[in-house]
């Protein structure tokens, strides 16, 4: 079983209407909504791939109950309310992201207790996305320590301060280029050099996620560059979560790194062709998996 | 006790952010929300005035439960979900109104049953606002018949087809100028003449609501023009609901019409000075009540 952890879930709402004009009153033609957040999207992709999962996180009572009707899920009712991300689709797409709501005092400890109960059944843990206000910034790092103590591989797909707090835990880190540059405190420069520097500083695997340019990974001094299939277009939202799902599945199964990385890149591309986050196109995935190119780029192979 | 009936409630959500640009992604700085809908606003004003009320309507389970913590309220869980009205306040104000969600089959009958149980304790009933999809358009008219049979005065603040279906019930009708013109099927022309014509056709009181220009009422051939205090500015949202609350209170107490109308105009103005719908400024209300002018305009007085 793979445990996904979501510390700031969202209800992803889409409004469709003919046009949006600032300063005007509009009647929305169509409203759709979906339970989301990065960890929930990861759980959806893994579930679609047939992997046994348990989606864990912090939410409000209604969100937890509704998600448990869709996926194996336990969300503790620790947030005042779950934020909404509103996407208004008219001639163009306008997004309004609500701030996350405050977590109850002690939510971190109760979540760690829940994970401690489940860790014996876990093949991997993945923590994805931002933290609701009130969640201690080192909670993902403490989850990594709990997993490490139990011998369970862990992937942390974080940003900003939570990512910085996770450096040194040995967990798999998956910064994007902006996040990596902020961690290094300088412009990224040669990405392979940057990833090597981050991995050395971290003492664990670092996978740099580069959108349509693919992945660069550094694991124990070995490094790979992964190029996804060219010319894939669609909705990039959720592609990172699908890639992360692939990494988590590979970690859970002990798959060799080059194969893990190819799988992650193919899943990311197979998410781009789907209109909503948290889903992949299974046929496109098979096709893309054959097209992904993984190249070893560390000096050992030069 | 005054019963307020809301057949298409709303959660009124306000986003505040520095600027809104179509096609961009925005982080919302502040989110506030409030349980609303026209009948709920009427109930809030009456409650603030110290009137015994019972707010009744159709909603979902969460809305009903949350409203009952704020007001004496029974909302049947007959809607899939309660719609949201989103107001985005940036440099200017942009509104996005979700469509109402479908009501369960038989919701109208269950609401009538609820009202039939409560009618013995009612001094007046007021039905305000639109109808959720699936609610038969003549439900307000049937509520008026139920009230009439019990000798309870009823006010219907409706629009479009539900208003048209209520003509002939004898209930107090409160169209605005657009609604009155649509009912007559012609441009409004002299509003006093139009109101007299509508009242004659309806066989009951008609109060034309004219925003900052006040009210014109025709009751059994007697007519009054009511001028609110001049120069009141602020937020007109909810002013009509505050006026309607005044009318309902007057009907419940058997107050003479000129006094009812003065009260309604003063309450409307006292709502304009408040930033949110469903509230009045009590001091402004007292001041405005002294400033309102009610003039008899039917021929009896010429």
UniProtKB/TrEMBL annotation, chains A, B:
Residue ranges of domain Carbohydrate kinase PfkB in the record: 9-272
Gene3D superfamilies: 3.40.1190.20
Main EC class the enzyme belongs to: transferase
Keyword ATP-binding among record annotations: yes
Pfam families: PfkB (PF00294)
Top-level taxon of the source organism: Bacteria
GO molecular function: ATP binding; phosphofructokinase activity; tagatose-6-phosphate kinase activity
InterPro entries per the UniProt record, alphabetical: Carboh/pur_kinase_PfkB_CS, PfkB_dom, Ribo/fructo_kinase, Ribokinase-like, Tagatose/fructose_Pkinase
UniProt keyword terms in alphabetical order: ATP-binding, Kinase, Nucleotide-binding, Transferase
PROSITE patterns: PFKB_KINASES_2
This enzyme's EC code(s): 2.7.1.144
Gene Ontology terms: cellular component: cytosol
KW RNA-binding (keyword) present: no
Family: Belongs to the carbohydrate kinase PfkB family.
Stated name of the protein: Tagatose 6-phosphate kinase
């Amino acid at each position: 079983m793979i445990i996904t952890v979501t510390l700031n879930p969202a209800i992803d709402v889409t409004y469709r209407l003919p046009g949006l004009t600032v300063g005007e009153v509009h009647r929305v033609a169509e409203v759709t909504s979906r339970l989301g957040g990065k960890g929930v999207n990861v759980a959806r992709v893994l579930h679609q791939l047939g992997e046994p999962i348990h989606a864990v996180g912090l939410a409000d009572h209604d969100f937890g109950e509704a998600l448990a009707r869709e996926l194996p899920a336990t969300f503790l009712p620790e947030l005042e309310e779950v934020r909404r991300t509103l996407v208004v689709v008219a001639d163009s797409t306008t997004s309004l992201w609500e701030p996350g709501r405050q977590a109850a005092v002690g939510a971190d400890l109760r979540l760690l207790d829940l994970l401690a109960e489940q860790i014996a059944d876990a093949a991997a843990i993945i923590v994805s996305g931002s933290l609701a206000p009130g969640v201690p910034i080192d909670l993902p790092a403490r989850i990594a320590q709990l997993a490490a103590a139990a011998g369970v591989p862990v992937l942390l797909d974080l940003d900003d301060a939570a990512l910085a707090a996770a450096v040194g835990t040995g967990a798999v880190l998956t910064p994007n280029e902006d996040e990596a540059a902020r961690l290094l405190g300088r412009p990224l420069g040669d990405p392979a050099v940057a990833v090597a520097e981050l991995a050395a500083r971290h003492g664990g695997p670092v996978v740099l996620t580069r959108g349509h340019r693919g992945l660069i990974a550094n694991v124990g001094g070995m490094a790979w560059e992964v190029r996804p299939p060219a010319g894939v277009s669609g909705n990039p939202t959720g592609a990172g979560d699908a890639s992360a799902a692939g990494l988590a599945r590979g970690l859970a199964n002990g798959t060799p790194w080059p194969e893990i990385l190819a799988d992650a890149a193919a899943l990311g591309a197979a998410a781009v062709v789907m209109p909503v986050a948290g889903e992949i196109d299974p046929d496109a995935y098979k096709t893309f998996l054959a097209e992904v190119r993984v190249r070893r780029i560390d000096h050992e192979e030069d």
